[in-house]
Design brief:
By secondary structure, this protein is mainly alpha-helical. It contains 23 helices and no strands. Helix content is 73%, strand content 0%.
Length: 445
């Protein structure tokens, strides 16, 4: 490993530690992520020939510019998807669209609410995706839980449930989508063999965390809320179904058109925006100006967007210099043949760095075996475990998944609080799910 590579890794680790210690340094994590991103790419430019030996000297700078644009395009797709999903959910929420969801899961028992939120999040994330589901559930929780300290516990379980739910569905997480499109896992295979491990990885953390909640909510908190809009009930229902139904439609749109998911989100946002403008036309201007989409866009937490951009682009440098590939090869050599340990470690790593390049690296490193009995065959142990571990493993740290990052921004949860309160609980659930999968393979399949 060259000196320059070591410097890049050290800078990344130092930036990561500053993000982890945000509550002590009092420096916003987005600022650190942007500095880490710019610093890593600057170091790469100091010795580009070492990483692109096949590119002629005069063209290497131009090549790196193209590489940055490529990674920025990938990151931009994620960011536009995130901004679109956040705006759609905000539109539905500000116009009372989630009132009936709130009323459906509402209960005075704090523990019952935790279980209801967890199960709804788990199954909803398999239909939508863990990122969008997390945004929806946080909006609902804000209507049900007034105490910020208690809502942080519910929000943490939303992260765990969303990641677990996304792992057993081919469209529930970016990594499962990648594996599904490549053809190394099938819909039937993951539903049959990954569903129960994923469910266990959610149930155990919720079971443990329920004991941190005591008593019941105040009666006042459960009184019917006044309508937040002059829209009729029919209009609010239209907004809800256009918003949530549109989010469900996004993966269908992607399958039909083969366009990136963010294009589907922009389509849904455009339709919903147009419909709300038409509805606002016949209502009081004073009542509606604050709820128009043009105003709601200003509520998006740009610091979260900037943080996401910095992290994704910093990890892209590690991918470019081959560090992630080296890690994968090292795991393969150290634990040859033991796919449980290899994937278990990959799952832990996915809570530290983005799971997308990790899974992409594994897909490039390991060929698909033609022998149906091989662990590397379609729906083999390796690929199914990779889908489970890369998805569920992201719950161990709050910045280990897209769901965690967006909840971190929405609820202002610190890295340190999550690591102290939730990391060990998520790890227990993660290992329990792997144990269940091992029992499945040993006894049933």
């Amino acid at each position: 490993m060259s000196t320059l590579t070591i410097l890049i890794v050290v800078l990344f680790v130092a930036g990561y530690l500053c993000i982890a210690l945000e509550s002590f340094t009092k420096v916003n994590k987005a600022a650190i992520a942007l500095l880490m991103c710019a610093g890593c790419w600057t170091l790469l430019m100091m010795g580009p020939g070492a990483y692109y030996p096949d590119v002629a000297g005069g063209d290497v700078v131009h090549h790196i510019a193209e590489v940055i644009e490529h990674h920025l395009g990938d990151a931009g797709g994620t960011l536009f998807f995130l901004m679109g999903a956040m705006t759609i959910v905000e539109i539905v929420d500000s116009n009372g669209g989630f009132n009936f969801v709130r009323d459906t899961i509402k209960t005075r028992s704090k523990r019952k609410l935790l279980w209801r939120v967890a199960f709804i999040t788990f199954f909803l994330s398999a239909i939508l995706d863990n990122l969008t589901t997390s945004i929806v559930m946080i909006m609902v929780l804000r209507k049900l839980v007034q105490s910020r300290e208690e809502r942080m516990i519910y929000a943490a379980m939303v992260i765990v449930s969303a990641n677990s739910g996304g792992a057993f569905s081919p469209i529930g997480d970016v990594t499962t989508i990648m594996l599904w499109i490549k053809g190394v896992i099938t819909t039937q295979g993951v539903l049959m063999e990954i569903f129960i491990p994923s469910l266990v990885s959610m149930v155990i953390p919720v079971f443990i965390m329920q004991y941190t909640l005591h008593g019941k909510f105040d009666k006042e908190q459960n009184l019917p809320k006044a309508d937040v809009s002059q829209f009729t009930k029919t209009q609010r229902d239209v907004i809800f179904w256009l918003g949530v139904g549109g989010l469900v439609f996004v993966p269908i749109f992607k399958t039909l058109t083969h366009l990136p998911p963010f294009m589907g989100i922009l389509l849904v946002l455009g339709v919903l925006w147009t419909v709300t403008e038409i509805f606002h036309y016949n209502t009081s201007e004073d009542d509606t100006m604050a709820k128009r989409v043009s105003d709601l866009l200003s509520r998006i937490d740009l610091s979260t967007i900037m943080f996401f951009l910095g992290i994704l682009m910093a990890v892209a440098v590690l991918q470019e210099i081959g560090v992630l590939t080296m890690m994968g090869e090292g795991l393969n050599e150290a634990f040859a043949g033991n796919y449980y340990i290899i994937n278990g470690i990959i799952g832990v790593l996915s809570s530290i760095v983005d799971n997308v390049p990790l899974v992409a690296g594994c897909m490039g490193m390991y060929p698909v075996a033609a022998d149906a009995t091989s662990a590397m065959a379609v729906d083999g142990i390796f690929w199914q475990l990779l889908a489970y571990c890369a998805g569920v493993g992201g719950s161990m740290l709050i910045i280990g998944s897209a769901a965690g990052v967006v909840v971190m921004g929405l609820e202002k949860i610190t890295f340190g609080w999550y690591m102290k309160k939730i990391t060990w609980v998520a790890f227990v659930g993660y290992l329990s799910g792997m144990l269940i999968y091992w029992l499945e393979k040993a006894l049933l399949f």
